Amino acid sequence: MRGEFYKELKKKEEDEFKEHTEKRVLSILENTVKFEAANFSAVNNKILDKALSALEIAVKGPTVQEESMQSAMSVLKNMGKGGAKGASDPLSTAVINALRE
Questions:
Q1: What is the mean pLDDT of the chain?
Q2: CB-based contacts of 64, cutoff 8 Å, min separation 6
Q3: In sequence order, which ranges of the chain are alpha helices (DSSP H)?
Q4: Residue 86 falls in which region: left (phi positive, over 0), alpha (psi -120 to 50) or beta
Q5: pTM
Q6: Measured between alpha carbons, how far is 58 from 88 in angstroms, rounded to an integer?
């Protein structure tokens, strides 16, 4: 009778421990997902800030209007030749270069 009592007690403790462990692991995983989402958002914000800064600097440049006109003319020339390729946009180039740094 005593042996059966201890066996049931041990089984109950094992079940409670298993349940506690499962709840704890689930909580850790849920928190990890939340922290990773916040981290991802912070990284994206840094990238956007860097891109916007590069755009602001590029737009304030003295040759931006001339470069944009040359880019547009190049695209028109290529369209007239039947080509689908356009010239590289100076603003896009500035952003890409800033993000590569």
A1: 79
A2: 58, 90, 91
A3: 2-60, 64-80, 90-100
A4: beta
A5: 0.47
A6: 14
